[in-house]
Specification:
Blueprint (H helix, E strand, L loop, with lengths): L34 H20 L5 H27 L3 H6 L2 H21 L4 H28 L10 H6 L5 H7 L3 H28 L14 H13 L3 H20 L1 H4 L12 H13 L3 H28 L2 H4 L6
Helix pairs in contact: 1-2, 1-4, 1-12, 1-13, 2-4, 4-5, 4-7, 7-8, 8-9, 9-10, 9-12, 10-12, 12-13
C-alpha cells in the first residue's frame, strides 16, 4: 500500500531582507508625474502676466512666479536627465503607465511654455529653448508610438493624455509668435488642430461606451487645454473666427468640468489632479488673448485658487519620496 506523501512543516524560505534597506541612486526614480503641475505653474504665470497687463498693474508677481516655476522645471529636467543617463530604456518603462506618459509629454511642453516666458528678457535663449523643446517632444512622440504598438490592446485605448503627447506642440506657437516666427506658429496650429479633433471625437465615443474609473477622471480636464491653446494661437496669428469658435468650445468644456467637479474628484487627491492645473491656466490666457478681459479674470482667479495648492502638494510628494511610488515611476 502506497504511503501518502509527507507534508513538510518547514516554513517557506524567503530572501533575507536587506539591512540597511537599499536606497535608489540619486535621481534614479525621478517621477515624470511632477511635470504636469510645473506646466500648470508656468501657464499660470503666463496668464497672470496677461491679466496684470490688461489691468495696467505691475507684472512683478507674474515674473516672480514664472522665475520660480522655471527654476523648478530646470531642476526637474536635470534630475530626469540623470535618470535617463543611468538607463535610457527607463523612458519606455515610464511611458507604459498613464502618469508617466502624461508627465514625459508635459516635460517638453513645459520647455515651450518657459520659452514663451523668456521671450521678453532673453529672446535668443527663448528661441533655442523652443527649438530644443520641439525636437525633444518630436523624439518622445516617436518613442511613445513604439511603446503603444508593443502594448496589449487595453493599454492602447484613447485617453486625454494623448493631447499632451500629440497636440502639446501647439504651446510652442505662443513663443513662436512672440519671437516673430508667425509661420511656425501657423504650421503648429494646422498640424495639431486635426489631431485634437480626432482625440476629442474618439474620446467622446469611448466615454459613451465606458465611464472612466474614478481615479482617472481628473484627466478628463486635459480636454480643455488644446481648445484653449489653439484659440490663443489662432487669435495671435489673425484667425479670429477660429479663435472664437475654439474659445466657445473651451467654455463648454469648462462648464462640463464645473458641473461634474464632484464626480471627477470623488476618489480624493492624487498626483493626477495635476490635470486640472495647466488647462485652467491655458483657458484664462486664451480669454485674455481674445480681449475677453472680465471672463479671463474670473478664470484666472479660479486658477490662482487651484493651481498653486495642487502644485505644492505634488512637489511636496516628490520631495518626500512618495510621488514615484504612487505613480509607478520606473527606476533606472
Amino acid at each position: 500500500m502506497a504511503q501518502p506523501p509527507r507534508i513538510s512543516r518547514r516554513a517557506p524560505m524567503y530572501p533575507a531582507p536587506e539591512f540597511p534597506p537599499r536606497k535608489p541612486k540619486l535621481f534614479a526614480r525621478t517621477p515624470p508625474a511632477v511635470f504636469p503641475v510645473l506646466l500648470g505653474l508656468l501657464g499660470l504665470g503666463l496668464a497672470l502676466r496677461l491679466g496684470l497687463a490688461e489691468l495696467a498693474l505691475p507684472g512683478g508677481v507674474a515674473e516672480l512666479l514664472l522665475g520660480a516655476a522655471g527654476a523648478i522645471w530646470v531642476f526637474a529636467m536635470l534630475a530626469y536627465a540623470v535618470k535617463l543617463a543611468r538607463r535610457p530604456g527607463v523612458l519606455g518603462d515610464d511611458m507604459r503607465v498613464l502618469p508617466g506618459r502624461a508627465g514625459i509629454a508635459a516635460a517638453s511642453v513645459g520647455g515651450m511654455a518657459l520659452a514663451a516666458a523668456l521671450v521678453p528678457f532673453a529672446p535668443d535663449v527663448a528661441g533655442w529653448l523652443l527649438i530644443g523643446a520641439l525636437l525633444v517632444h518630436a523624439g518622445q512622440m516617436v518613442v511613445l508610438v513604439a511603446v503603444l504598438r508593443a502594448m496589449p490592446e487595453a493599454g492602447r485605448q484613447v485617453n486625454p493624455s494623448l493631447h499632451l503627447s500629440f497636440v502639446g506642440p501647439i504651446v510652442g506657437g505662443l513663443a513662436a509668435v512672440s519671437l516673430g516666427w508667425a509661420g511656425l506658429a501657423v504650421a503648429l496650429f494646422w498640424a495639431t488642430l486635426p489631431v485634437a479633433l480626432l482625440i476629442w471625437g474618439l474620446s467622446a465615443l469611448q466615454f459613451a461606451r465606458e465611464v472612466p474609473p474614478a481615479p482617472l477622471r481628473p484627466m478628463l480636464a486635459i480636454h480643455l487645454a488644446p481648445a484653449s491653446l489653439l484659440a490663443s494661437v489662432a487669435a495671435l496669428t489673425g484667425q479670429g473666427g477660429l479663435a472664437v469658435v475654439l474659445a466657445i468650445a473651451g467654455g463648454g468644456l469648462l462648464l462640463a468640468m464645473l458641473t461634474g467637479a464632484r464626480w471627477m474628484t470623488v476618489s480624493g487627491f492624487s498626483a493626477i489632479w495635476g490635470s486640472f492645473t495647466f488647462p485652467l491656466a491655458a483657458y484664462s490666457g486664451a480669454l485674455f488673448t481674445l480681449g475677453w478681459v472680465w471672463p479671463g479674470l474670473i478664470v484666472l482667479l479660479a486658477a490662482l485658487a487651484v493651481v498653486p495648492p495642487v502644485a505644492y502638494q505634488v512637489v511636496r510628494m516628490w520631495a518626500v519620496g512618495s510621488l514615484a511610488q504612487k505613480t509607478n515611476a520606473a527606476e533606472a
